[in-house]
Write a structure and sequence with these properties.
GO cellular component, one term: plasma membrane
GO molecular function, one term: electron transfer activity
Region (Disordered): 130-195
Order of helices and strands: HEHEEEHEEEEH
Signal peptide: 1-25
Distance between the termini: 5 Å
Number of strands: 8
Oligomer: single chain
Largest sheet: 5 strands, mixed
Number of helices: 4
CATH class of the domain at 25-129: Mainly Beta
Strand order of the largest sheet: 2-8-7-4-5
Structural class: alpha/beta
CATH topology of the domain at 25-129: Immunoglobulin-like
Pfam family, one: Cu_bind_like
Length: 218
C-alpha cells in the first residue's frame, strides 16, 4: 500500500516537472540527426527549413554537432551570411559540439568558415523572440456614443372650435392613451452561469478523487 502511494506521488511529481519544462530554456540540436555538416541533404535550404520548425526564445541554446578540425561555427552579419563572407566574423566556435547561447532577441546568422562549406549550404539563420516582453496592451473598446435626448416637441394646438348655433362651444374629449405593454419577466431566461475554467477544475477534482479512492483500496 505504501509503495503504491509512493508511485502515485512520483507520477504527480513527473507531471508537474513536464509542465514546468515548457517555461524553461531549450536546447536545439542544429540539423537534428544530420548535425552541422557541409553539403547537407536538401542543399542550401536544409538548415533554413530545419529552423522554420521551431520558435527560438532568449536563453535557448543552439547545439552544433561536428567533429573538431572538420568544421567550426562563426557568427556573421546578414551581409556576410548572404555572400558567405566568413572571414569577417563576430564570434567563432572551433570545438565541437559547440553550444551557442541566444542571449537576446533578433535575427542571428551562422556559417562554417571552412572553404566551400558555406556555399554548399552549411549556414543557418534564426529569429529569436523575447519571451519576457509583456504582451501589447489592448485598446479599451469604447461603447456606442450616447445621443443627447431629443427635445420635447411643442404641443400643436388645433383650430379653436367654432361656436354652435346656440352659442355654446362644444367640449373636446380628452385623448385616451393606450397603456404600455407589460413585459413578462418570467419569459426571459437568465443566462447560465459558470465557465470553462470551473468545468475543468471540477473534472480535475473528479479524476483526483477517483485516483485517491483507488489508492485507498490497497
Amino acid at each position: 500500500m505504501a509503495q503504491l502511494r509512493n508511485v502515485g506521488i512520483l507520477v504527480v511529481i513527473i507531471v508537474a516537472a513536464v509542465l514546468l519544462k515548457t517555461t524553461e530554456a531549450e536546447d536545439y540540436e542544429v540539423g537534428g540527426t544530420t548535425g552541422w555538416t557541409s553539403f547537407p541533404p536538401g542543399g542550401a535550404s536544409f538548415y533554413s527549413r530545419w529552423a522554420s520548425n521551431f520558435t527560438f526564445k532568449v536563453n535557448d541554446t543552439l547545439v552544433f554537432n561536428f567533429e573538431s578540425g572538420s568544421h567550426s561555427v562563426v557568427e556573421v552579419t546578414k551581409a556576410n551570411y548572404e555572400n558567405c563572407g566568413v572571414d569577417d566574423n563576430i564570434k567563432s566556435f572551433n570545438r565541437g559540439p559547440a553550444r551557442v547561447s541566444l542571449t537576446g532577441p533578433g535575427e542571428f546568422y551562422y556559417s562554417c568558415p571552412f572553404s566551400g562549406h558555406c556555399s554548399s549550404g552549411q549556414k543557418l539563420s534564426v529569429i529569436v523572440t523575447d519571451s519576457s516582453s509583456p504582451a501589447p496592451k489592448k485598446t479599451p473598446t469604447q461603447g456606442p456614443s450616447t445621443s443627447p435626448p431629443a427635445p420635447k416637441s411643442a404641443t400643436v394646438e388645433g383650430p379653436s372650435p367654432s361656436p354652435s348655433a346656440s352659442g355654446s362651444v362644444p367640449s373636446s374629449n380628452p385623448t385616451k392613451t393606450a397603456p404600455a405593454p407589460q413585459t413578462d419577466s418570467s419569459a426571459t431566461a437568465s443566462p447560465p452561469q459558470g465557465s470553462a475554467t470551473t468545468l475543468s477544475s471540477t473534472f480535475s477534482l473528479f479524476i483526483f478523487t477517483i485516483f485517491i479512492n483507488f489508492l485507498s483500496q490497497f
